[in-house]
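Final paragraph of the annual report: two paired records, presented back to back.
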Amino acid sequence: MRSNQPVIASSQLKGVRYEIRGSLARRAHELERQGYEIISLNIGNPGLFGLRTPETMRLAMIENLGAAEPYCNQKGIFPAREAVVMKQQARGIVGTTAEHVFMGNGVSELIDLTLRALLNPGEEVLIPSPDYPLWTAATVLNGGKAVYYPCTEAAGFNPDVDAIEAAITPKTRAIVIINPNNPTGAVYSREVLERIAELAQAHDLVVFSDEIYDQMLYDDAEFVPMATVCGDVLCASFGGLSKIYRACGYRVGWVSFSGALERSQDYLNALDLLAALRLCSNVPGQWAVQTALGGRQSIHELCAPGGRLFESRQAILNGVEASEFLHVVAPMGSMYAFIGVDTSKIPDFDDEAFAMELLEQQHVLVAPGSSFNTPYRDHFRITNLPDPDQMAEVFRRIEAVLQLQTKRVSKLESA
């Protein structure tokens, strides 16, 4: 007898969300299939906007294709791992060797593996709010509990270190730092990072420092690698080719460990086991790492005055300034802006409803702020990857939707 029972998804997915590529993105694909041109600002995908991977990286990968056909060591090819070590040493991070570096299919895979190797059921991870939602999802999927610490707009989206300390319990195992930050563009000061490191030391926490945007800085912002202030705290520093080197499709990321290496050997062995279970990460892309890290860093020109990312960021600031509804903390790093809406003018503003209306009416796709695990619903995130002219057009369309929402409010009030 045939069963008509539906196939039910795993209960482990309860509470897991990734709206950056969720229902809004699916609707955008439907509209594209109908022939509409969508300006997709929901994810940081440089190649979609003509920002190419440096040619030297492509050549390095092509020239080593013959060596990329077999599986490699589960931690990755030695030249790539050694290049990461040299980068860390140049920043003053000592004690790390190639054995303490793991290559992954992007940072995303490594976030999952590092949390899986650490967490027991019910253990807690301190995560910023707003966060990059993969950190929450990976924590939950690996049996942990995400505990958020606030990074408020009033504080320039910097971590509230006192709130972090108050959130620590006997079940807390790790703290996540995203610097430069996604989604807000905040770049943390040395003082803030040192205070967080002191808490990690006092409570024996592992520090996970997501630094995928480490060289994407604007104006006078200074990036301080977390590992340089962690001392004898186990610090996992994440980086990759996707953003700085505009090679999202290569799917190459890395995590390097420093600090309390000797007393963390059991954990590192567990991570090595998990890496082995997936055999290895994408080998061809790994051959671009040494060239990327050792070559000319073209990202600096893109982020300097006159550069594509700098000027697009300025177009965002200009668009916000010209709006009667919007406000933003100027992003000092990464490729995003976390834009707020004045709810005194649109009292019933809802970020998800706004994002859908903007998509349906103006064919612009943005990410609602609440999808980054915020307790408020009056922000949205956009990427600064389009050129300045296109960005100016985006803000004309955003303003049109906000004007319509204001008119609806006025009609309700006068009814």
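The closing record of the year follows.
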Amino acid sequence: MPRYYFDYHEPGGVIPGEVGYELPGMDAARKLALTALGEATRDFTAGGGTGRMALEVREESGSVLTVFAIIGVLTEGFESAGPVVPSGAAVAVRRGH
């Protein structure tokens, strides 16, 4: 089984994953990354933190996946023109018939 490493990128810096997890494949790594980022986001926001957090998943050969969250506060009465997307991010929109 491949070994996946999870590196946390927070506003204060990077916390590299050193041990890694043996997982059956990319789908399992993606699911674990989303769960782990959700837990990290919960902990980060409990302290009042805002900003961008990311979890980079890598194999020994290099990066294979990045999941991220943007944590912010909107004031009452703020009207958004659409979703907030970080610069450089690719966004795919699927429209139904």
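The radius of gyration is 16 Å. This concludes the annual technical report; the extension proposal builds directly on these records.
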